[in-house]
Amino acid sequence: MIAKANTITHGSNAVRYSADKELAEIVKVGHLPDGLTTSSIWSRMMLHQAQFKEKQRGNRRIKNTSIRIELSPAKEETEGWTMADWQKLAEDFIREFDAVYLKRPDRDDDDPHTHLANSQYVVSLHRDSKSKILHLHINANRIDMEGNTNNEYMIGKRATMAANKINEQRGWIQSMTKREWNIDKVTNDCIEALKSMDSFDFNTYEAKLKAKGYGVKVMRDSIGKVCGYSIKKGNSTYKASELGHKRSLTPSRLRSTWEKLHRDKGIHTQAINPKGTQSVTRSSSPAATKTVQPKQQSSPKQMPLHPTTTLEPVKQQPAIVHHDVEWNGRNYPVDIPKEVDDVLMKEVKLPEDILWSKLVDVQNTAILLFGNYLDAATQMSESCGGGGSAPESGWGRKEDEDDMAWARRCAQQAFGMHKRPSRGMHR
């Protein structure tokens, strides 16, 4: 099971969507009467917030008034479930969500826990429109029944930690393992779609993926050229940059990947494994690096050459630096060309206005950004008291950006992320 959570300003729309969507069913409500209409549910939540308006002002007025959570168990994990089973899952998740202890390092007055069990909430059961996979939506009041504000600090991480706890208790697959499996499956299907195409055409490629049951969202520029796309599997979405081997399925490299597949059928094995063919030595240290020099191919011995045969010089491949960044109990492997890694390490600097970040923390954040581990990089910087300049929506590597330019931008972003947050930020 995987879980997502965030705080939002448009609670009324979220409640309406979760409760009124076609085939949606109300699983349970918390601190609300049964049988209320959608509009009545949100009206009661807002009325409750108004009763504690003065208390909110004393702790700075909140901007995000609602908590939205989505729970997505695997189809096989919920086979044959009754409504009582879904109610039990919602109750278990809320209990584990409230049990998570995450305290903002630069604030002493925040409650490190949430109190969803003591808040108004509504739980709805949805069916995915294509796959019919069942999943839960939870919409909760940000203000609990005592007038206290539910903590939104790292709320996405809280949801993941709670989901992993449930997975552990029930013997289900952990969320990160499930995501890696999904990425492998989507990558394989993308490769199969390319292999089945007699000529390259993105529209055909898109149609073949949709025929496999995927949702495909395509981004085009002003002249209609494909500049990005993402693939939806169930309730999870994967960017093209997350798939394939070394970004081989991004729009700028898709045609060349198709050409390689049809020039040499054996080359597709490199693209099927998104982790690549290089081995990574994992380490328990915060960041372990290992430089691997490519092996030189040797000429066969005692093999006479044909008179017309000439040996082409073996092209020297760049050395790769393997980083293993340990964070929150998980290892994040990142491969960076050595000359790019040298520049990245030199570009990383420690901000003057910091709480307790060290240079290695900023370097690790930059490495995670380079490897497209945005969530881990954000969490690492926040745990060190950072929050000055978090990546904006749409952050990522540009299609025409080379390794050197991308590394420099990651170093600059990591520097900003470790700055102390400015005063007067909303909770």
Task: Note the main attributes of this structure.
about 425 residues, 11 strands, 3-stranded antiparallel beta sheet, 5-stranded antiparallel beta sheet, single chain
Could you write a compact summary of the structure shown?
By secondary structure, the chain is of the alpha+beta class. It has 13 helices and 11 strands.
Largest sheet: number of strands, sense, barrel closure: 5 strands, antiparallel
Number of helices: 13
Low-confidence stretches: 266-287, 297-311
End-to-end CA span? 29 Å
The multimeric state of the shown protein is single chain
Number of strands: 11
> What proportion of the residues is helical, as a percent range?
25-40%
Q: Kindly estimate the percentage of residues that lie in beta strands according to DSSP.
A: 15-25%
- As a whole number of angstroms, the C-alpha radius of gyration is 25 Å
Average pLDDT score: 81
Which class of secondary structure composition applies to the elements? alpha+beta
Give the CA-based shape: globular
What strand line-up does the widest sheet have?
1-3-5-4-2
Written as H for each helix and E for each strand, in order along the chain, the element string is: EHEHHEHEEHHHEEEHHEEEHHHH
